[in-house]
Write a structure and sequence with these properties.
This protein is an alpha+beta fold. It is built from four helices and five strands, in the order E-E-E-H-H-H-E-E-H. It has a single domain, classed as OB fold (Dihydrolipoamide Acetyltransferase, E2P) (Beta Barrel), CATH 2.40.50. The protein has a five-stranded antiparallel sheet.
C-alpha cells in the first residue's frame, strides 16, 4: 500500500516544515485599459472580513496570448453596501448595472428569474460564459503598510464587441476601485 504523503522523488515530506512557496504568482497587473477576451470560471456570493456580502466573479483570460490563463477577480457590491462609500445607494446601483450587463451577455437567466443572486443561480447562469472585458489597475496600501496593486474590471461587453470594449475606459470611482 502506498502512503499518500510519500513524495515521488523519495524525499521526506517532513523536511517541508511549516513554510512552503510554489514559486508562482506575483504577476505585474495587466496594463490599464487593456481589452481582454475572458470567461467566467467562478461566480459566487462572498463576504469581506466584516461579513458584508458581494458577488465575486473570477475571470480567466483567453486572449491575448500574453495574458492567457491569468485570473482577474471582480467584486460586485450589489448585495450589501461597499464599506467607506460616499454614496452607498448610487454605488450599489452602479454595481447592479454591472451585474445586469454581465448577466445579459451570458443569456439573461439571472434577471429572468426575478430572484436575488445566490451561489447556485450565479454559477449556473454565468459559468463558462465568454465576454470582452476591459481592465484597469487599482492600488492601495494594505493593513501591513505595503502597497498592493491589481486589476479591476472596468467594462464588459459581448464577445462580438471586442474592438468597442477595448476603446472604452471608464473613469475611476471615488476610491479607485469601482465595484
Amino acid at each position: 500500500m502506498v502512503d499518500y504523503w510519500n513524495l515521488s522523488d523519495g524525499d521526506d515530506i517532513h523536511k517541508t516544515g511549516g513554510e512552503f512557496e510554489t514559486g508562482g504568482g506575483n504577476f505585474a497587473p495587466i496594463p490599464d485599459g487593456t481589452g481582454l477576451l475572458a470567461a467566467i470560471d467562478e461566480a459566487k456570493i462572498d463576504e469581506d472580513r466584516d461579513g458584508n456580502e458581494f458577488v465575486s466573479i473570477r475571470w480567466s483570460v483567453l486572449t491575448p496570448a500574453e495574458y492567457k490563463n491569468r485570473k482577474v477577480f471582480q467584486k460586485i457590491w450589489c448585495i450589501d453596501d461597499k464599506p467607506l462609500q460616499k454614496d452607498p445607494e448610487k454605488a450599489k446601483d452602479k454595481a447592479k448595472r454591472m451585474l445586469f450587463a454581465i448577466d445579459k451577455n451570458a443569456g439573461g437567466a439571472l434577471v429572468a428569474s426575478g430572484k436575488a443572486p445566490n451561489d447556485n443561480n450565479l454559477q449556473k447562469a454565468l459559468s463558462g460564459k465568454q465576454m470582452q472585458i476591459t481592465v484597469n489597475i487599482w492600488d492601495m496600501v494594505g493593513d501591513d503598510g505595503k502597497k498592493m496593486t491589481g486589476n479591476w474590471v472596468a467594462s464588459v461587453s459581448p464577445k462580438a464587441n471586442a474592438s468597442k470594449a477595448a476603446q472604452q475606459r471608464p473613469a475611476d470611482d471615488d476610491d479607485g476601485i469601482p465595484f
